[in-house]
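Hi all, long-time lurker, first post. I run a small reading group and we've been trying to get comfortable going from sequence to structure in the token notation. Rather than ask abstract questions, I figured I'd post a concrete chain and ask someone more experienced to write out its structure so we can walk through it together at our next meeting. Sequence below, copied exactly:
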Amino acid sequence: MEKSFLVTLLLVIFLCSCDSNKKSYSEQYDTPLNGEINISVDESFEPVINEQIKVYQSSYPGTKINAHYKSEADCFRDLQSDSTRMIIVAKGLTREETAYFNSKISFKPQFGVLAYDAVSVIINIAAEDSVFTIRQLRDKLSGKDTLGDIVLDGKSATSTVRFLLDSILNGDPFGKNVTAANGSKAVVDYVSKHKNAIGFVGSSWVTNEQDPEQVAYQKQIKFALVECKRNCDSGSFAKPSPATITYAQYPLVRPLYYILKENTNGLGSGFMNYLNLERGQLVFRRSYLVPGTMYFGVRKGNIQ
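-- Answer (accepted) --
Happy to help. Here is the structure in token form:
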């Protein structure tokens, strides 16, 4: 009888131990349906990523995605830490960066294009000059033309700053007339209050006509027309829209990338898959960005 009692006791201890292990495993490891993670996101994309997270978390109530919005350089610094598994920025990994992460974590991070965004040139609603060539923008950013206040979301480390330095100034420095605001919202605020200001912000901050705050801003600012270089008639100008981004008519277009440092089927992978598939791509489209992995074209048809 003592032997039977000992066997029963050992069995109970074993089952309790298994249950305890299962509990600690679920608490330690997240899945696409449960858990909590931290991600870092380029501040230029805050409005649209906020919407994506709301949709994902409403579909999977057991998940929590903590998005930290900051400069592009800070996002890449976060990716090197263990606490950040995913970043959303305006560029992918270079071969050297991929090799670095492979040597550090023993696997290569995934990355790819989610959507296409534009750097919008915004001006005050009362501004008289609303049409710019690429040469005119270069002169203003370099300080050669000092008429008007040029406002960016930062003077260094942001994706908008990097894009303008690479694509407009070709590596030359900004002029002394260029000032830095504290983020994209501050750029829009400044331009809305200063007649001669010219601001550069990500399109998701100003183009969404479904967002009441952005609709209110559109009564105080307007989009400058920028010289079209491709797929348009000579002498044409365009403002950012899904159509002008899709057909490369608006010249200041940039990709929106995810970079995922996860080799298991965790919450990071679940959120990445959602962003790449139909529902996530539709949210990008609703925010007036151009989806990067799915095509939602409109075709004409005849009904008999």
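A couple of things your group might point at:
The longest strand covers residues 110-124.
DSSP finds eleven helices and 13 strands in the chain.
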